[in-house]
UniProtKB/TrEMBL annotation:
Reaction catalyzed: a uridine in tRNA = a pseudouridine in tRNA; a uridine in RNA = a pseudouridine in RNA; uridine in 5S rRNA = pseudouridine in 5S rRNA; a uridine in mRNA = a pseudouridine in mRNA
Species of provenance: Hyalomma marginatum
Pfam families per the UniProt record, alphabetical: PseudoU_synth_2 (PF00849)
Taxon lineage: Eukaryota, Metazoa, Ecdysozoa, Arthropoda, Chelicerata
Gene3D superfamilies found in the cross-reference section: Pseudouridine synthase, RNA-binding S4 domain
PANTHER family the UniProt entry points to: MITOCHONDRIAL RNA PSEUDOURIDINE SYNTHASE, PSEUDOURIDYLATE SYNTHASE RPUSD4, MITOCHONDRIAL
MF (Gene Ontology): pseudouridine synthase activity; RNA binding
Name of the protein in question: Pseudouridine synthase
Function: Responsible for synthesis of pseudouridine from uracil.
Biological process, per Gene Ontology: pseudouridine synthesis
Length: 320
């Protein structure tokens, strides 16, 4: 039988959600762990059953079992997408939930997992959305997309009202998105803005890439160099517009392609052994939803951290 842990709610934790309390003090408990333990009555607050979304009060007693086995991704930021691994995929995605309330669900999407099925892609976040309903009546809906190869923050709406609101927020650019990218070489300027129109063009491989073109759609990306070494640099990247593959195409256009980018890095094969996955991560996202200011941060995946270490690029993650 698992050890039973009993903790009193500290004054600084007054009026926060139960799942947020676990995130502060017991980070090894994933949202999936907390939800299951609460649903089965194994988490109690003042001896009463609770939900993961319930708020707790100063001096209340939280009782819960110690974890023995944790469901966790096969590799942080990497995921198996075989049809035979559906149950495992659901478990891994659930373990990567960053935040959930009655309106939205925020995932730290692993690299190599598509957001939506189609064009020969059968396994995707949308494919398993019905498994992410939890206490909602309907499955969460996609309200924006990030590339299959890109890891990081993905927001899903848990109801129609939220879906419409978030769609308007993205359309009106009332949202701040920050990406991290490891690139070959180093931009000429330590910070700057890339304003290069992009247009879809045949890459010669049967797939369309975005390429600089005076006839293309306006695309603007801001960047800042956070660290650099002789062969690579870590950039903080802010997409002002939201064109397909915008960050990847823009960084390649200034001579600093993202490491392990099959589509835009001509030297991809040389760096494949360093990182099997694209070194582009949707790191932070800020928005105001129904009057509440929200800020999310997605921890860096293992392959990204390994590349930082390989190139001796120093970066310290901060808590939000």
């Amino acid at each position: 039988m698992a050890e039973i842990i009993k903790k009193l709610v500290a004054e600084e934790d007054n009026d926060i959600r139960l799942d947020r309390w676990f995130k502060r003090h017991y980070k090894e408990y994933s949202f999936a762990n907390i939800s299951k333990l609460a649903r089965t009555g194994q988490i109690r607050v003042d001896s009463k059953r609770v939900k993961a979304s319930d708020k707790i009060r100063f001096n209340q007693e939280i009782r819960f079992p110690a974890l023995i086995v944790l469901p966790k991704p096969q590799a942080k930021g990497s995921i198996t997408t075989s049809k035979n691994d559906y149950a495992k995929l659901v478990e891994e995605i659930t373990a990567n939930i960053i935040y959930i309330n009655s309106h939205i669900l925020v995932l730290n999407k692993p690299a190599s997992l598509a957001v939506q099925s189609g064009n020969g892609i059968e396994i995707s976040v949308d494919h398993i959305a019905s498994e992410l309903k939890f206490d909602a009546k309907e499955k969460p809906k996609l309200v924006h997309r990030i590339d299959k190869e890109t890891s990081g923050i993905l927001v899903m709406a848990r109801n129609i009202k939220a879906a419409q609101e978030i769609a308007d927020i993205f359309q009106n650019r009332e949202i701040d998105k920050k990406y991290l990218a490891v690139v070959q070489g180093k931009p000429k300027d330590s910070k700057g803005m890339i304003d290069i129109p992009l247009e879809k063009k045949d890459s010669g491989t049967g797939f369309e890439n975005m390429a600089p073109s005076k006839n293309g759609k306006q695309a603007i990306t801001k960047y800042k160099v956070l660290a650099h070494s002789e062969r690579a640099a870590l950039l903080e990247v802010f997409p002002v517009t939201g064109r397909k593959h915008q960050i990847r195409a823009h960084l390649a256009a200034i001579g600093c392609p993202i490491i392990s980018d099959k589509k835009y890095n001509k030297e991809y094969s040389l760096y494949n052994k360093i990182a099997a996955n694209l070194c582009l991560h949707a790191y932070e996202l800020d928005l105001a939803l129904f009057g509440e200011k929200l800020k999310f941060q997605a921890p860096l995946p293992k392959h990204f951290i390994d590349v930082l270490n390989f190139f001796s690029l120093n970066f310290k993650e901060k808590n939000v």
